[in-house]
Design a protein that fits this description.
The structure holds 2 protein chains of 2 kinds. By secondary structure, chain A is an alpha/beta fold. In chain A, helix 16 crosses helix 17. The longest helix of chain B is centred in the C-terminal third of the chain and has 19 residues. The chains are: A alpha/beta, B alpha/beta. At the A-B interface, helix 1 and helix 5 of A face strand 7 of B.
């Protein structure tokens, strides 16, 4: 058993609670007891129980009403009802309301063991199912890491060596270079691969939403919090959490994140109980975190806590030799998903793609190939299927100056802001290029 | 020397020879001196007329509130049918990490199941049951190893499947709890 199954026993008779509690503790379960439904619901709201074993006839709220309330809090809760009075009607009612099973007191020891074993099996199967789903996704992702270039080989070697450790990893690289795929590959090759890989896109959430997403919340913690909800850290227990766009989190979240990383414990929003989780953290960003630290925009202690290993994913323009492999991969992928015969690509189109600087990196190449397959003749991708020419123009370009600015920026990026090489490519002298950079206030991309 | 011991208290009018063999096996397994005692307990107050059985929880409580001097662990031995409120019957029970346990041979004899009596088998079963309950008092929980004495047994056939010894894993756990186990 990877993790102890937790059981909540609800019965108004002390002797029943004690007997059941002893029985389950001896079997290695984690047990808590409540003497009435009200107390049980309070416990369920503050803690997570895998199984709830409840009596039906209790003073105050009865077991059936409690079952309905538990189901409204956590629909996947496994509730087993027990009663001293065997009644088919009550049993049917309980099962209709979502009880996992029904047992009549006193039980044969074997029946009780079987019942709990079945419930535990269901819990473990659900966990395994979730882990396998993630595993399949992860394995796909490893196959998605295409590249024969030296730059990519270096990245893959880093992935392999870092996967076996538990160290935090920061993946850096321009937008569209496949940072999330690298995170999936690290997870899929680690000992945590049978447990979930949970991704959080920090940039897409406001501070309060991110807080609730990461730490979970209690019912009623804020407007709209209708159920208790596990946070991403809790979901990633035994697995990996991937925090994308980490540079965008607020300074308050930076402090909270640092505390969680140091203690591996946290409190749900609106809750008061500490929860612990064993996770590995992988972050990604397209920003230069170190310079953000120097500018006081990112906490230095958090930076060092996260940056145990740094993997830099090269932009596509620095691994041009991978472009044919990637094109071949995307052609197969999209022809197969669109039920089309695999197409080829003509030489001119291939050459044009190899020369193009791809500011949007692999994501941009993938979109181009998908588009070409959709609009193409179904046999061969040619230059006219590719969005070069007027389609390439950014919608924001409305003047000649805009066009010149965008073009110069692209070429500067292509040559990694090497002024001499850029000037040579643009067929202007270095002074002219400096003047243009000053005129358009161009700066290297962060 | 004022050394701690394991005390087995005979409440069930069990034979001396029979108990000495159990005591010997217990001593070998836990490496503590084992003391045998005879005692009397009025069981009528623990009798449930509706179930025609004796309440194991209450007996255990009673035994626990009158500790035996110098006894590190105490197991009460009975020959009546024991139950706890939630279960139809029990062979025995103990306080996990506590001082006290109880065991009964009522449901361990072959005759109970219409089979020819077998004294040797009865001794084996009861020995395993006593060692199992003692294991709980040392903090050991049920073990998944099929032959380990700490494996949970619902029926006598289950008891027959296991040995009267702790498996390697449970032995390690016991040693961690009592590293300075005295040698008998």
């Amino acid at each position: 058993m990877a993790k102890k199954i937790s059981i909540l026993i609800v019965d108004d008779e002390e002797s029943v609670r004690d007997s059941l509690s002893n029985w389950f503790i001896e079997d290695g379960y984690q047990v808590e007891c409540a003497e009435n439904a009200k107390m049980a619901l309070q416990l369920i709201e503050s803690s997570y129980f895998d199984i709830v074993l409840t009596d039906i006839k209790m003073p105050g709220m009865d077991g059936l009403e409690m079952l309905r309330r538990i189901k409204s809090l956590r629909n996947d809760a496994i509730v087993i009802v027990m009663t001293a009075f065997a009644s088919v009607n009550t049993a049917v009612m309980a099962l209709k309301d979502g009880a996992f099973d029904y047992i009549t007191k006193p039980f044969d020891p074997d029946d009780l063991s079987h019942l709990i074993r079945n419930a535990s099996k269901q819990i473990l199967l659900a966990q395994e199912n979730e882990a396998l789903k993630n595993k399949v996704v992860s394995l796909d992702s490893v196959e998605d890491l295409i590249g024969n270039s030296e730059a990519m080989k270096k990245v893959l070697k880093q992935v392999e060596s870092v996967a076996q450790s538990n160290s935090s990893v920061i993946i850096t690289g321009e937008s569209g270079t496949g940072k999330e795929l690298i995170a999936r590959a690290i997870h899929a090759n680690s000992s945590r691969k049978y447990y979930p890989l949970v991704s959080v896109h920090c940039g897409a959430l406001t501070e309060s939403l991110l807080e609730s997403e990461l730490f979970g919340h209690e019912k009623g913690a804020f407007t709209g919090a209708m159920y208790n909800r596990k946070g991403r850290f809790e979901m990633a227990d035994s697995g990996t959490i991937f925090l994308d766009e980490i540079a965008t989190i607020s300074s308050k979240m930076q402090i909270e994140l640092l505390r969680v990383l140091e203690t591996k414990t946290f409190v749900r929003v609106g809750g008061n109980k500490e929860t612990s989780s064993d996770f590995r953290v992988i972050c990604a960003t397209n920003r230069d975190l170190k310079s953000m630290v120097e500018q006081g925009l990112f906490r230095e202690d958090l930076y060092y806590r996260l940056n145990v290993v740094n993997i830099n994913v090269p932009p596509l323009r620095e691994r041009v030799e991978d472009i044919p492999l990637l094109i071949d991969y995307f052609i197969k992928k999209y022809c197969s998903s669109m039920n089309k015969q695999p197409v080829t690509i003509d030489e001119a189109a291939m050459q044009r793609l190899e020369e193009y600087p791809f500011p949007g990196n692999i994501r941009e190449l993938e979109n181009m190939i998908e588009r070409a397959i959709v609009i193409g003749n179904g046999k061969k991708i040619t230059l006219k299927d590719l969005p070069f020419g007027k389609d390439m123009l950014d919608n924001s370009i409305e003047s000649l100056d805009d066009f010149e600015k965008t073009f110069i920026r692209q070429i500067l990026n292509k040559y990694s802001w090497n002024i001499s090489r850029t000037a040579k490519a643009l067929k202007v002298d270095r002074v002219t290029l400096y003047n243009k950079i000053k005129k358009y206030d161009l700066k290297p991309e962060e | 020397m004022n050394q701690q011991n394991i005390t087995l208290i005979n409440f069930g009018y069990l034979g001396k020879n029979f108990l000495e063999k159990i005591a010997e096996a217990v001593g070998q397994e836990f490496r503590y001196p084992v003391i045998l005692k005879e005692s009397h307990l009025d069981l009528s107050e623990f009798f449930d007329p509706g179930r025609r059985q004796y309440n194991g929880n209450k007996i255990l409580q009673a035994l626990n509130t009158s500790p035996t001097p110098k006894a590190f662990k105490t197991i009460g031995l009975f020959s009546v049918d024991l139950f706890i409120p939630i279960l139809t019957f029990i062979f025995g029970q103990a306080m996990l990490n506590g001082q006290t346990g109880i065991a009964s041979l009522f449901r361990l004899s072959n005759e109970r199941y219409g089979i020819e009596a077998d004294e040797k088998l009865l001794l084996e079963r009861f020995t395993k049951e006593v060692i199992h309950e003692l294991g709980h008092t040392f903090g050991l929980i049920h073990c998944m190893t099929p032959t380990c004495v700490m494996r949970s047994s619902t029926y006598v056939e289950d008891i027959d499947q296991k040995n009267q010894n702790l498996c390697h894993y449970c032995r390690e756990k016991l040693t961690a709890v009592i590293p300075d186990q005295p040698v008998r």
